Amino acid sequence: xxxxxxxxxxxxxxxxxxxxxxxxxxxxxxxxxxxxxxxxxxxxxxxxxxxxxxxxxxxxxxxxxxxxxxxxxxxxxxxxxxxxxxxxxxxxxxxxxxxxxxxxxxxxxxxxxxxxxxxxxxxxxxxxxxxxxxxxxxxxxxxxxxxxxxxxxxxxxxxxxxxxxxxxxxxxxxxxxxxxxxxxxxxxxxxxxxxxxxxxxxxxxxxxxxxxxxxxxxxxxxxxxxxxxxxxxxxxxxxxxxxxxxxxxxxxxxxxxxx
Length: 259
What we know:
This protein has 14 helices and no strands. The protein is mainly alpha-helical.
C-alpha cells in the first residue's frame, strides 16, 4: 500500500472510530462519516486515474462500492477508467449507470457525451451534452456549451451550433474556442463582418497573452486578411502556420489555396 493510501486510510479509520455508539446523535455522525468515507474513496480513485494508475484507481472505487453500490460518482469514475483502458462496453455500461442514478448531474452527462462523441455516436452525444448544459450552477457550463456546439457542427446543424457557442460566450467572454468557431461559422456563411468581429475579440486575447494561436486561428486569420486585402498580415499568419503547424489540415488547406 502506498504512502498516500496509508494516510487516507488512516484518516478514514479515525473518522469512523468515534461513531460506535447507538445514540441518535452519534448515529447521525456515523451516517455523515460514511458519506465522507464514500466521497473520499471516490475522489482518491479519480486522483489515481489522473496520475495514470488505473489499477489503484479501481481498487479505491471498489472500496467505495463496498460502502454504497448506489453512489453515482463511483460509476462515473469506473467509466472514465474503462474508457482510458479502451474497455468501451464496460465504460458505456458504467456511464449509463451513473446517469441513471443521478440524472441531474451535469458532469456525468458531459463525460458520457464526450465518450459517445469520441465513439462517433454524434446524435447520442449531442443529447447527453445538451443535458449537461441544463444545470445553471454547473461551474463548467460554458465549456459544455462549447462541446455541444462542436457536436452540432459535426452533425451539420449550423444554427444550433451558433446558438450554443453564443451561450458559451454569454457565460464566459474569454472562450477562445467559441470565438474561433463563431468566426468560422460566419465566414463559411459569407458574413465577413461578423466573422471579423469575433476574430478581433480572439485577437485581443492573443495580444493580452491569454491564449496562443492554433492552426485553426491562423488559417482563419489568413482567410480574413485576404478578404480584407491585407496581404502583409496574411503573409505573417502564413509564416506562423508553416512554422508552428506544418502537419496540420489547416496548412494543407493553405497550400491548396496557393495552387
